[in-house]
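How a chain folds remains the central question behind the approach discussed here. The record that follows shows the chain in one-letter code together with its fold in token form:
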Amino acid sequence: MKIKIDYGKNGIYVNLPSNSTVLRPLVTNPLKNPSKTIMNSSSNPINSQPLETLYKKGMVVGVSVCDHTRAQPRNEIIRSIIKKCDGIKKNNLIVFIATGSHRQSSESEIHEMFDRDILSMITIVNHNSEKFQELKYIGKTSKKTSVFLNKLWMECDLKITTGFVEPHFFAGFSGGPKMIAPGLAGIDTITTLHNYERIINKNSTWGIIEGNPIHEEIVEISRLAKPDFSIDLTLNRNNEITNVFSGNLQDEHMLACKYVKKNAMQKTDKLYDIVITSNSGYPLDQNIYQAIKGVSAAAQITKPGGSIISVSECIDGFPYKSNYEKLLKNYNNPKIFLEYIKENDTKIPDQWQFQIQSQIQIKSKIYLYSKLGQKDVSDAHLLRAENIEDLIEDLSSKITNPSICVLPEGPQTIPLLVN
């Protein structure tokens, strides 16, 4: 059977054996008028005053948005905020790109993220987690994590978070409190939140928030930061808006998570020998770092000793010149890396991604079909796939009655193994 798999901007078609299982999220229809729905939602929010009531003339408004690796419909949200903050001047509407530990969004990426009209009405700040002088200490969590957040955002008169909610491979779900930490946090705070013990916890995984040590601590940080208003969207496979949740951050995000879990997590009762996954295409599959999310989704249903084929374009490399690239090249293999961070309680930026990758590689082989050459793929401790169909045929020939599953939309579908 011929299946379209999300890859880059256009996707690719792959012929798979007819007995392959295909897992997709439930079809969710886009809102007929998403801009109107956002406006109505922010006027009738969950456990909060309406946004237009919170805004007072002359206020400096700080809005956090996702960075260039996320398919967030930023223009629709920012346009609605501009209308609610009637008459606000460009200098008083500061949009913070919540990069977390990622690299800053480039000028060209910013022009992809926002249309020209919106850019003429806002001031952009690219968060930098490693610039200590741009951070503000706001206290410690109950687990003694020192919390440093973007100073300028903390000093805004009206603080708004905006995001979109989907299952997340160790925080449970994206959006909500993640738009504060790690989004606007300092690197020391981020590395503590993502240390070895938190990442290895069995509850630090897809779709779990209760008992998830990472989610619970970022919620605690969000309470320390005291945002005034939050808007979270949900999207379908075409990145169209399917629902809007706004108001009190914790309350609206909880409802958004319940909605997404129902649509994005698909039950299956078996493990597979071979699992093919995308990383949802552009912009999510720009680098290997992001591609590990799709790999993690596939790992939920891969047999021990099985194979995962990641179909991710990776036009930005590891990304190149990132902490993740340095980590990959500094350790000979995943097992050595895991032993090192376990014994030394290290807090290296991006170690969590290599940790998750390593935990999967101890159990399964990971192949990467991308635009990268052999050296880059080898440096990432992965196996290069030159042709997906040939690879599947080769792997299948070594297994009696091989079972195959494909996640064409990657981590937009999270397999939920049930007995």
Remarks:
- The chain has two domains: 2-26+269-417, 34-263.
- DSSP finds 16 helices and 20 strands in the chain.
- The first helix runs from residue 34 to 43.
